[in-house]
Request: fold
Amino acid sequence: MTEPAALDTGPAPGTGPAPVTDAETLRARVLASLTTARERTTLLTSCVEEPDLTAQHSPLMSPLVWDLAHIGNQEELWLLRAVAGREPMRPEIDGLYDAFEHSRAERPTLPLLPPAEARRYAAEVRGRVTDLLESADFEGTRLTEAGFAFGMIAQHEQQHDETMLITHQLRTGPQALTAPDPDPVPLFTGPAEVLVPGGPFTMGTSGEPWALDNERPAHRREVAAFHIDTTPVTNGAYQAFIEDGGYDQERWWTKPGWAHIREHGIHAPQFWRRDGGQWLRRRFGVTEVVPPEEPVLHVCWYEADAYARWAGRRLPTETEWEKAARFDPATGGSMRYPWGDAEPGPEHANLGQRHLRPAPAGSYPAGESPLGVRQLIGDVWEWTASDFLPYPGFRMFPYKEYSEVFFGPEYKVLRGGSFAVDAVACRGTFRNWDYPIRRQIFSGFRTARSAGAA
Ligand SMILES: [Fe+2]
Reply:
Protein backbone atom coordinates (compact mmCIF):
# COMPACT_ATOMS: atom_id res chain seq x y z
CA MET A 1 0.00 0.00 0.00
CA THR A 2 1.60 3.28 -1.04
CA GLU A 3 -1.27 5.76 -0.72
CA PRO A 4 -1.33 7.66 2.58
CA ALA A 5 -3.37 5.59 4.95
CA ALA A 6 -5.92 6.72 7.49
CA LEU A 7 -7.93 5.08 10.21
CA ASP A 8 -11.46 5.01 8.89
CA THR A 9 -12.98 4.37 12.28
CA GLY A 10 -12.73 6.59 15.31
CA PRO A 11 -12.05 5.06 18.69
CA ALA A 12 -14.78 2.56 19.40
CA PRO A 13 -17.19 4.20 21.82
CA GLY A 14 -17.22 2.67 25.23
CA THR A 15 -14.03 0.66 24.87
CA GLY A 16 -12.43 2.20 27.91
CA PRO A 17 -12.38 0.65 31.32
CA ALA A 18 -15.73 1.82 32.65
CA PRO A 19 -16.95 -0.34 35.48
CA VAL A 20 -19.17 -3.05 34.07
CA THR A 21 -20.94 -5.75 35.97
CA ASP A 22 -21.91 -8.60 33.67
CA ALA A 23 -19.67 -10.93 31.68
CA GLU A 24 -21.48 -10.34 28.36
CA THR A 25 -20.92 -6.58 28.49
CA LEU A 26 -17.35 -7.06 29.59
CA ARG A 27 -16.72 -9.56 26.79
CA ALA A 28 -18.03 -7.08 24.21
CA ARG A 29 -15.88 -4.31 25.69
CA VAL A 30 -12.75 -6.46 25.64
CA LEU A 31 -13.39 -7.54 22.05
CA ALA A 32 -14.03 -3.97 20.89
CA SER A 33 -10.84 -2.75 22.61
CA LEU A 34 -8.70 -5.50 21.10
CA THR A 35 -10.24 -4.99 17.66
CA THR A 36 -9.72 -1.22 17.71
CA ALA A 37 -6.09 -1.76 18.66
CA ARG A 38 -5.53 -4.33 15.90
CA GLU A 39 -7.07 -2.10 13.24
CA ARG A 40 -4.61 0.59 14.20
CA THR A 41 -1.65 -1.82 14.29
CA THR A 42 -2.63 -3.05 10.83
CA LEU A 43 -2.83 0.48 9.48
CA LEU A 44 0.56 1.43 10.91
CA THR A 45 2.25 -1.67 9.49
CA SER A 46 0.54 -1.81 6.09
CA CYS A 47 0.99 1.79 4.95
CA VAL A 48 4.68 1.34 4.12
CA GLU A 49 6.54 -1.24 2.05
CA GLU A 50 8.52 -4.12 3.56
CA PRO A 51 11.92 -2.36 3.66
CA ASP A 52 10.37 0.35 5.83
CA LEU A 53 9.05 -2.29 8.23
CA THR A 54 12.41 -3.97 8.74
CA ALA A 55 14.58 -0.82 8.71
CA GLN A 56 15.52 1.03 11.85
CA HIS A 57 14.46 4.64 11.36
CA SER A 58 16.14 5.87 14.56
CA PRO A 59 18.37 4.16 17.13
CA LEU A 60 15.74 5.26 19.67
CA MET A 61 13.13 3.06 18.05
CA SER A 62 12.61 -0.59 17.12
CA PRO A 63 11.99 -1.65 13.54
CA LEU A 64 8.20 -1.62 13.06
CA VAL A 65 8.24 -5.36 12.47
CA TRP A 66 9.66 -5.88 15.97
CA ASP A 67 6.70 -4.01 17.53
CA LEU A 68 4.30 -6.10 15.47
CA ALA A 69 5.55 -9.49 16.67
CA HIS A 70 6.16 -8.18 20.20
CA ILE A 71 2.48 -7.18 20.38
CA GLY A 72 1.54 -10.76 19.47
CA ASN A 73 4.09 -12.24 21.85
CA GLN A 74 2.88 -10.23 24.87
CA GLU A 75 -0.69 -11.19 24.05
CA GLU A 76 0.32 -14.84 23.93
CA LEU A 77 2.32 -14.61 27.19
CA TRP A 78 -0.42 -12.96 29.21
CA LEU A 79 -3.69 -14.20 27.75
CA LEU A 80 -2.90 -17.66 26.36
CA ARG A 81 -0.21 -18.71 28.83
CA ALA A 82 -0.75 -16.78 32.09
CA VAL A 83 -4.57 -16.67 31.97
CA ALA A 84 -5.42 -19.86 30.04
CA GLY A 85 -2.40 -21.99 31.00
CA ARG A 86 -1.54 -22.93 27.41
CA GLU A 87 1.85 -24.16 26.21
CA PRO A 88 4.10 -21.67 24.35
CA MET A 89 3.33 -21.47 20.63
CA ARG A 90 6.88 -20.57 19.61
CA PRO A 91 9.15 -20.66 22.67
CA GLU A 92 12.21 -19.96 20.53
CA ILE A 93 11.07 -16.39 19.78
CA ASP A 94 10.27 -15.29 23.34
CA GLY A 95 13.78 -13.93 23.91
CA LEU A 96 13.76 -11.92 20.68
CA TYR A 97 10.68 -10.01 21.74
CA ASP A 98 11.55 -9.53 25.39
CA ALA A 99 11.93 -5.75 25.65
CA PHE A 100 14.31 -6.13 28.59
CA GLU A 101 16.62 -8.61 26.91
CA HIS A 102 17.54 -6.45 23.91
CA SER A 103 17.83 -2.68 23.64
CA ARG A 104 16.00 -0.93 20.82
CA ALA A 105 19.33 -0.12 19.16
CA GLU A 106 20.19 -3.83 19.13
CA ARG A 107 16.89 -5.14 17.76
CA PRO A 108 17.59 -4.74 14.01
CA THR A 109 20.51 -7.19 14.37
CA LEU A 110 18.27 -9.95 15.77
CA PRO A 111 16.85 -12.77 13.63
CA LEU A 112 13.36 -11.22 13.76
CA LEU A 113 10.34 -12.80 12.10
CA PRO A 114 9.94 -11.33 8.61
CA PRO A 115 6.84 -9.13 8.15
CA ALA A 116 4.54 -11.82 6.69
CA GLU A 117 5.45 -14.27 9.45
CA ALA A 118 5.08 -11.62 12.16
CA ARG A 119 1.60 -10.80 10.85
CA ARG A 120 0.65 -14.47 10.75
CA TYR A 121 1.88 -15.06 14.29
CA ALA A 122 0.02 -12.05 15.72
CA ALA A 123 -3.15 -13.08 13.87
CA GLU A 124 -2.91 -16.65 15.11
CA VAL A 125 -2.54 -15.49 18.71
CA ARG A 126 -5.52 -13.18 18.27
CA GLY A 127 -7.64 -15.99 16.84
CA ARG A 128 -6.95 -18.15 19.89
CA VAL A 129 -7.60 -15.23 22.25
CA THR A 130 -10.94 -14.58 20.56
CA ASP A 131 -11.88 -18.23 21.11
CA LEU A 132 -10.78 -18.02 24.72
CA LEU A 133 -12.84 -14.91 25.23
CA GLU A 134 -16.05 -16.70 24.31
CA SER A 135 -15.92 -18.75 27.49
CA ALA A 136 -14.12 -16.28 29.76
CA ASP A 137 -16.01 -15.57 32.99
CA PHE A 138 -13.60 -12.89 34.30
CA GLU A 139 -13.60 -14.34 37.77
CA GLY A 140 -11.21 -16.26 39.94
CA THR A 141 -7.92 -14.38 39.98
CA ARG A 142 -6.75 -10.79 40.15
CA LEU A 143 -5.46 -11.19 36.60
CA THR A 144 -8.86 -12.07 35.17
CA GLU A 145 -11.10 -10.08 37.50
CA ALA A 146 -13.07 -7.48 35.50
CA GLY A 147 -11.05 -8.56 32.45
CA PHE A 148 -7.88 -6.87 33.75
CA ALA A 149 -5.38 -8.92 31.72
CA PHE A 150 -7.39 -8.38 28.54
CA GLY A 151 -7.57 -4.64 29.24
CA MET A 152 -3.85 -4.57 29.97
CA ILE A 153 -3.12 -6.21 26.61
CA ALA A 154 -5.42 -3.83 24.70
CA GLN A 155 -3.58 -0.93 26.38
CA HIS A 156 -0.22 -2.53 25.62
CA GLU A 157 -1.03 -2.81 21.91
CA GLN A 158 -2.26 0.79 21.80
CA GLN A 159 0.90 1.94 23.57
CA HIS A 160 2.98 0.21 20.92
CA ASP A 161 0.79 1.78 18.24
CA GLU A 162 1.75 5.16 19.69
CA THR A 163 5.39 4.06 19.66
CA MET A 164 5.02 3.02 16.01
CA LEU A 165 3.49 6.39 15.21
CA ILE A 166 6.60 8.00 16.70
CA THR A 167 8.67 5.79 14.38
CA HIS A 168 6.57 7.05 11.47
CA GLN A 169 7.30 10.63 12.53
CA LEU A 170 11.05 9.88 12.64
CA ARG A 171 11.02 8.07 9.31
CA THR A 172 12.15 10.13 6.34
CA GLY A 173 10.55 9.77 2.94
CA PRO A 174 7.15 10.52 1.49
CA GLN A 175 3.95 10.75 3.50
CA ALA A 176 2.50 7.34 4.40
CA LEU A 177 -0.29 8.31 6.79
CA THR A 178 -3.08 10.81 6.53
CA ALA A 179 -5.98 11.98 8.69
CA PRO A 180 -8.41 14.89 8.69
CA ASP A 181 -7.36 17.97 10.61
CA PRO A 182 -9.16 18.85 13.85
CA ASP A 183 -12.02 21.29 13.42
CA PRO A 184 -10.89 24.91 13.37
CA VAL A 185 -11.93 26.97 16.39
CA PRO A 186 -12.00 30.71 17.01
CA LEU A 187 -8.82 32.07 18.53
CA PHE A 188 -9.02 31.27 22.25
CA THR A 189 -9.71 34.49 24.16
CA GLY A 190 -10.68 33.05 27.56
CA PRO A 191 -8.63 33.57 30.72
CA ALA A 192 -4.98 32.53 30.37
CA GLU A 193 -4.99 30.71 33.69
CA VAL A 194 -7.34 29.11 36.18
CA LEU A 195 -7.16 29.14 39.99
CA VAL A 196 -7.28 25.67 41.54
CA PRO A 197 -8.23 26.00 45.22
CA GLY A 198 -6.01 24.58 47.94
CA GLY A 199 -7.07 21.70 50.17
CA PRO A 200 -7.22 17.94 50.10
CA PHE A 201 -7.93 15.92 47.00
CA THR A 202 -8.01 12.24 46.08
CA MET A 203 -5.19 11.21 43.74
CA GLY A 204 -4.90 7.87 41.97
CA THR A 205 -7.53 5.16 41.87
CA SER A 206 -8.48 1.96 43.63
CA GLY A 207 -11.66 1.15 41.70
CA GLU A 208 -10.83 1.70 38.03
CA PRO A 209 -10.79 -1.91 36.74
CA TRP A 210 -8.18 -1.52 34.01
CA ALA A 211 -5.96 1.00 35.79
CA LEU A 212 -2.34 -0.13 35.93
CA ASP A 213 -0.35 -0.66 39.10
CA ASN A 214 1.33 2.75 39.16
CA GLU A 215 -2.07 4.54 39.23
CA ARG A 216 -2.98 2.78 42.46
CA PRO A 217 -4.08 3.13 45.20
CA ALA A 218 -6.35 6.16 45.66
CA HIS A 219 -4.96 8.36 48.41
CA ARG A 220 -5.52 11.83 49.84
CA ARG A 221 -3.10 14.66 49.18
CA GLU A 222 -2.96 18.22 50.41
CA VAL A 223 -2.41 20.71 47.64
CA ALA A 224 -1.80 24.45 48.14
CA ALA A 225 -3.79 26.78 45.87
CA PHE A 226 -2.18 27.34 42.48
CA HIS A 227 -2.88 28.78 39.05
CA ILE A 228 -2.54 26.64 35.93
CA ASP A 229 -2.64 27.55 32.23
CA THR A 230 -6.10 27.14 30.73
CA THR A 231 -4.57 25.51 27.63
CA PRO A 232 -1.24 23.92 26.76
CA VAL A 233 1.53 26.33 25.72
CA THR A 234 1.21 27.10 22.01
CA ASN A 235 3.76 27.21 19.21
CA GLY A 236 3.22 30.97 19.02
CA ALA A 237 4.03 31.45 22.71
CA TYR A 238 7.01 29.13 22.40
CA GLN A 239 8.33 31.07 19.41
CA ALA A 240 8.37 34.20 21.59
CA PHE A 241 10.71 32.32 23.95
CA ILE A 242 12.96 31.42 21.01
CA GLU A 243 12.92 34.95 19.58
CA ASP A 244 13.79 36.34 23.01
CA GLY A 245 16.98 34.27 22.99
CA GLY A 246 15.63 31.61 25.33
CA TYR A 247 18.00 28.98 23.99
CA ASP A 248 21.01 31.31 24.38
CA GLN A 249 20.58 32.32 28.01
CA GLU A 250 21.89 29.94 30.60
CA ARG A 251 19.80 31.54 33.36
CA TRP A 252 16.57 29.85 32.20
CA TRP A 253 18.04 26.34 32.19
CA THR A 254 18.88 23.74 34.79
CA LYS A 255 22.55 22.78 34.78
CA PRO A 256 22.02 19.42 33.02
CA GLY A 257 19.49 21.02 30.66
CA TRP A 258 21.94 23.74 29.62
CA ALA A 259 24.72 21.17 29.12
CA HIS A 260 22.39 19.01 27.04
CA ILE A 261 21.20 21.70 24.63
CA ARG A 262 24.75 23.03 24.16
CA GLU A 263 26.17 19.58 23.50
CA HIS A 264 23.48 18.70 20.97
CA GLY A 265 23.08 22.12 19.34
CA ILE A 266 19.39 22.31 20.25
CA HIS A 267 17.75 25.65 19.48
CA ALA A 268 14.11 24.79 18.69
CA PRO A 269 11.64 21.91 19.12
CA GLN A 270 12.52 18.73 17.26
CA PHE A 271 11.49 18.67 13.58
CA TRP A 272 11.53 22.51 13.35
CA ARG A 273 13.76 24.51 11.04
CA ARG A 274 13.95 28.19 10.34
CA ASP A 275 13.23 29.32 6.80
CA GLY A 276 13.89 33.03 6.43
CA GLY A 277 11.49 34.79 8.75
CA GLN A 278 9.37 31.78 9.61
CA TRP A 279 9.56 28.39 11.26
CA LEU A 280 8.75 25.23 9.33
CA ARG A 281 8.24 21.76 10.72
CA ARG A 282 8.20 18.24 9.33
CA ARG A 283 5.15 16.26 10.37
CA PHE A 284 4.67 12.69 9.11
CA GLY A 285 6.52 13.37 5.86
CA VAL A 286 4.99 16.81 5.17
CA THR A 287 6.79 20.12 5.65
CA GLU A 288 4.55 22.99 6.72
CA VAL A 289 4.60 26.35 8.45
CA VAL A 290 4.44 25.91 12.23
CA PRO A 291 0.85 26.81 13.20
CA PRO A 292 0.99 29.40 16.01
CA GLU A 293 -2.29 28.43 17.68
CA GLU A 294 -1.43 24.72 18.11
CA PRO A 295 0.08 23.33 21.35
CA VAL A 296 3.84 23.01 21.04
CA LEU A 297 5.01 19.45 20.40
CA HIS A 298 8.33 17.59 20.51
CA VAL A 299 9.96 19.48 23.35
CA CYS A 300 11.96 17.77 26.07
CA TRP A 301 11.49 18.33 29.80
CA TYR A 302 14.48 20.68 29.91
CA GLU A 303 12.91 22.87 27.22
CA ALA A 304 9.52 22.88 28.95
CA ASP A 305 11.15 23.78 32.27
CA ALA A 306 13.27 26.57 30.70
CA TYR A 307 10.25 28.07 28.95
CA ALA A 308 8.32 28.09 32.23
CA ARG A 309 11.14 29.94 34.03
CA TRP A 310 11.42 32.44 31.19
CA ALA A 311 7.68 33.05 31.50
CA GLY A 312 8.07 33.64 35.25
CA ARG A 313 6.26 30.42 36.01
CA ARG A 314 7.01 26.73 36.61
CA LEU A 315 5.83 23.33 35.50
CA PRO A 316 2.92 21.95 37.55
CA THR A 317 3.71 19.08 39.86
CA GLU A 318 2.09 15.78 38.99
CA THR A 319 -0.29 16.20 41.95
CA GLU A 320 -1.29 19.68 40.78
CA TRP A 321 -1.88 18.40 37.25
CA GLU A 322 -4.14 15.61 38.48
CA LYS A 323 -6.06 17.92 40.78
CA ALA A 324 -6.64 20.35 37.88
CA ALA A 325 -7.85 17.41 35.79
CA ARG A 326 -10.03 15.50 38.27
CA PHE A 327 -11.11 17.69 41.17
CA ASP A 328 -14.79 18.53 41.27
CA PRO A 329 -15.31 21.55 43.56
CA ALA A 330 -19.06 20.82 43.73
CA THR A 331 -18.53 17.50 45.51
CA GLY A 332 -14.92 17.66 46.69
CA GLY A 333 -14.40 14.32 44.94
CA SER A 334 -12.24 13.22 42.03
CA MET A 335 -13.70 12.32 38.63
CA ARG A 336 -12.38 9.90 36.04
CA TYR A 337 -11.86 12.64 33.45
CA PRO A 338 -11.97 16.46 33.49
CA TRP A 339 -15.53 16.42 32.05
CA GLY A 340 -16.85 13.79 34.45
CA ASP A 341 -17.02 10.01 34.47
CA ALA A 342 -18.26 9.40 30.89
CA GLU A 343 -15.97 7.62 28.43
CA PRO A 344 -14.05 10.00 26.12
CA GLY A 345 -15.95 10.90 22.97
CA PRO A 346 -14.82 12.98 19.97
CA GLU A 347 -16.41 16.03 21.57
CA HIS A 348 -14.21 15.74 24.66
CA ALA A 349 -10.67 15.27 23.46
CA ASN A 350 -8.28 14.68 20.57
CA LEU A 351 -7.41 11.01 21.08
CA GLY A 352 -6.99 7.80 19.13
CA GLN A 353 -5.05 9.02 16.08
CA ARG A 354 -8.25 10.50 14.65
CA HIS A 355 -5.99 13.43 13.76
CA LEU A 356 -2.26 13.49 13.19
CA ARG A 357 -1.71 16.71 15.11
CA PRO A 358 -2.85 18.50 18.25
CA ALA A 359 -6.01 20.63 18.00
CA PRO A 360 -5.70 24.43 18.36
CA ALA A 361 -5.53 25.79 21.90
CA GLY A 362 -9.01 26.31 23.29
CA SER A 363 -10.58 23.37 21.44
CA TYR A 364 -12.97 20.89 23.06
CA PRO A 365 -14.97 23.12 25.43
CA ALA A 366 -17.09 20.03 26.22
CA GLY A 367 -13.96 18.42 27.65
CA GLU A 368 -13.00 21.18 30.06
CA SER A 369 -12.75 20.61 33.79
CA PRO A 370 -15.32 22.15 36.18
CA LEU A 371 -12.77 24.87 36.91
CA GLY A 372 -12.40 25.58 33.18
CA VAL A 373 -9.05 23.97 32.28
CA ARG A 374 -9.02 22.72 28.69
CA GLN A 375 -7.28 19.98 26.72
CA LEU A 376 -5.89 18.17 29.74
CA ILE A 377 -6.72 14.90 28.03
CA GLY A 378 -5.43 14.29 24.49
CA ASP A 379 -3.56 16.62 22.10
CA VAL A 380 -0.10 16.58 23.75
CA TRP A 381 1.46 14.68 26.64
CA GLU A 382 2.20 17.26 29.32
CA TRP A 383 5.50 17.28 31.15
CA THR A 384 5.17 17.77 34.91
CA ALA A 385 7.80 18.87 37.42
CA SER A 386 7.68 15.50 39.16
CA ASP A 387 9.88 12.42 39.20
CA PHE A 388 8.19 9.07 38.54
CA LEU A 389 7.58 7.63 42.01
CA PRO A 390 5.26 5.02 43.51
CA TYR A 391 2.16 6.16 45.40
CA PRO A 392 1.94 5.35 49.11
CA GLY A 393 0.74 1.75 49.33
CA PHE A 394 1.91 0.85 45.81
CA ARG A 395 1.84 -2.86 45.06
CA MET A 396 3.51 -4.21 41.93
CA PHE A 397 1.04 -6.02 39.64
CA PRO A 398 1.32 -8.06 37.54
CA TYR A 399 5.01 -7.64 36.64
CA LYS A 400 7.72 -5.34 37.95
CA GLU A 401 8.93 -4.28 34.51
CA TYR A 402 5.73 -2.36 33.86
CA SER A 403 6.41 0.36 36.46
CA GLU A 404 8.53 -0.63 39.41
CA VAL A 405 11.90 -0.82 37.69
CA PHE A 406 11.43 2.76 36.41
CA PHE A 407 10.64 4.47 39.71
CA GLY A 408 13.20 7.09 40.70
CA PRO A 409 14.61 10.49 39.83
CA GLU A 410 15.82 9.52 36.33
CA TYR A 411 12.35 9.85 34.83
CA LYS A 412 9.90 12.75 34.70
CA VAL A 413 6.16 12.18 34.65
CA LEU A 414 3.99 13.15 31.68
CA ARG A 415 0.21 13.32 31.93
CA GLY A 416 -2.95 13.47 29.89
CA GLY A 417 -2.12 11.58 26.70
CA SER A 418 -1.71 12.91 23.18
CA PHE A 419 -3.56 12.70 19.87
CA ALA A 420 -1.65 9.43 19.43
CA VAL A 421 -3.10 7.81 22.56
CA ASP A 422 -6.23 5.71 22.47
CA ALA A 423 -9.00 6.22 25.01
CA VAL A 424 -8.41 2.74 26.44
CA ALA A 425 -4.93 3.86 27.57
CA CYS A 426 -5.92 7.32 28.77
CA ARG A 427 -7.67 8.52 31.90
CA GLY A 428 -7.30 11.17 34.55
CA THR A 429 -5.10 8.86 36.61
CA PHE A 430 -2.92 7.49 33.78
CA ARG A 431 0.83 8.07 34.25
CA ASN A 432 3.55 8.15 31.62
CA TRP A 433 7.26 8.77 32.19
CA ASP A 434 10.40 9.40 30.19
CA TYR A 435 13.92 10.79 30.38
CA PRO A 436 14.09 14.60 30.53
CA ILE A 437 16.00 14.67 27.22
CA ARG A 438 13.31 12.86 25.22
CA ARG A 439 11.41 14.81 22.58
CA GLN A 440 10.63 12.48 19.72
CA ILE A 441 7.57 11.62 21.84
CA PHE A 442 4.35 13.64 21.42
CA SER A 443 5.22 15.90 24.33
CA GLY A 444 4.22 19.44 25.20
CA PHE A 445 3.36 21.15 28.47
CA ARG A 446 1.46 23.82 30.32
CA THR A 447 2.75 26.06 33.10
CA ALA A 448 1.61 26.91 36.63
CA ARG A 449 2.37 29.26 39.51
CA SER A 450 1.67 29.08 43.21
CA ALA A 451 -1.26 31.25 44.31
CA GLY A 452 0.15 34.44 45.69
CA ALA A 453 3.26 34.20 43.49
CA ALA A 454 3.58 37.04 41.00
FE1 LIG B 1 5.83 -3.81 25.13
